[in-house]
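Hi W.,

Here's what went into the run:
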Amino acid sequence: MTTEIKLPFDKGYVRSFSKEMGEPEWLTALRTEALDMAEELPLPKPDKTNITRWNFTQFEKHIVPSDDFSSLNDLPEEIRTLVNLQESDQTLYIQRNNRPSSLRVSKELQEKGVIFMDIFTAAREYGDLLQKYFMKDGVKPGEHKLTALHAALMNGGVFLYVPKNVELSAPVQAVFVHDEKDANLFNHVLIVAEDNSSVTYVENYISTVEESNGIFNLVTEVIANKNARVQYWAVDTIAKNTTVYVNRRGVTADDARIEWALGLMNDGNTISDNTTYLMGNGSSGDTKTVVVGRGEQTQNFTTKVIHFGKHTEGHILKHGVVKDSATSIFNGIGKIEHGATKSNAQQESRVLMLSEKARGDANPILLIDEDDVMAGHAASVGRVDPIQLYYLMSRGISKKDAENLIIHGFLAPVVNELPIEGVKKQLVEVIERKIR
Amino acid sequence: MAGSTLTIKDLHVSIDGKEILKGVNLEIKGGEIHAIMGPNGTGKSTLSAAIMGHPKYEVTKGTIELDGQNVLEMEVDERARAGLFLAMQYPSEISGVTNAEFLRSAINARRGEGNEISLMKFIRQMDEKMAFLEMDPDMAQRYLNEGFSGGEKKRNEILQLMMLEPKIAILDEIDSGLDIDALKVVSKGINAMRGEDFGCMIITHYQRLLNYITPDYVHVMMRGQIVKSGGPELAQRLEAEGYEELKKELGIEDETVEQEV
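Here's what came out:
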């Protein structure tokens, strides 16, 4: 099916929006060029999920007006639990739909010259720095229709820049609140960690509306320069019927390391692509993902580590639970390019099915174009082991509770990684709610 | 009332359509320790699995009652809450669930909602029992049985026994694979449980364990039935003579039943 779908926003709109936001010219140009590409380019083709009939392009509002939260104490309960309000010297960005709503930057960050702010302010105040990294080495606008559309219509996001040799002890937190049914989000997160720096970033996409027919097109770029270390922890809980395309990508220079821990708990159809380019020699990437699929939703989770540098190390760990009539596809791809000698690509995907109608598929793929490497994969799709259940029940634990224990245990590898207690607790509660 | 009574009458059990137990009769009262002995493949483990309600075993005839309640009508978890406990020969490994988390869930399942054990009290009890069983304190925070050695798994079963304080416990080959030191520790745990309110059935094919735990009754199982019962002296005799003499006396040639799973 090829249909000429007209995009709802034209160049004139994009240009005037960019101007209204006070963006530098390069960004306006990038947006309008991307819009042209968005008309022409095809959708991405996630393995084993046909998305040609999904709506990624037709929507009404590019920006919804939202008020600021008047103070952190006025945050809705479910948001408040994510952030530690007792901590006065924290680093926290809260965005409400498209509106940068609140920002706190700790003394430590200010003193060390860290930049942390919404993407529009960053474009105005640090335009040249942003230009150096924005959709250059990470995600490019011209990859496919959705990356092009993202660049053209970006309407939210955050920029985090950690200067050379700066090591941050406390996590940097961003919360993207979705509380307006009509909101559509083209959010861009850009993290640049300069040589020898280290940072932990924690983000939540959270809907407080029950459902929306919105379109979320989310892109993250993490640039880890020489010997930098970035830990990126995310929990997504986006509402039912919201179509989500989320692309989180990392690029490592020599000896850099990126660690991802992703709790993907959306209730709508979701295409998630998490790719790490190990460019530099001796660099490494570690991805941990947990997923729960329920209801009628279809989700596709592609995790990729591509080895370019020598002596690079890539690990993928994915644990997913699928129930009701949900479909979850897990593609794990370890790719070793020619010349990436002594590299090591490892992956493990485990899927636990909780109902007859649920569909789960784990596809481990190794693409290796170099002889002198190591690679391995393990994958399984199965049900809760009746003997494990029997064991737990033989101690008096009810069947339901025994199942829950097994499922929580199954998802623990990622849950236990989360460094902010409130976010960890929220993830545990979301999992609880979804598997009941 | 001093102790509970587990009554097994004419129990027949099949697995995959093959009959393994062919009419077992046994009564275990609080305060008593029964040893069930016999060579491999005679139905001992099937008996323990059938009492606990293992999903693969089907009871085709007979009754099991605990203080007059029909055990066979209960789900596995109900049997446990009614006071039964089975220390398994091959405990499951459950990844991501810590030993402490699991034990607390099990204790609270017995106590019921609104009556949960306080965290402090739980930790104190667990520390105490672990020290008694000479277990590494780290084992509280390790994932349930995951990567435990054979001996650690057996100690962990006894730890659960001591924490859960059942009325009737069945220990399925708790001694197999244990070195002498571990065997002593495990025996110490079981002996600490002895009392009016605690009945126990110990399944073993070695007399060795019974040097440390003196049973009140010894039963020998062959061909899916109890073929001989007696006091502790029966175990001594088996140790001295082996099973062959007894088989001759009873006129049994092949003591095994269909392969146990």
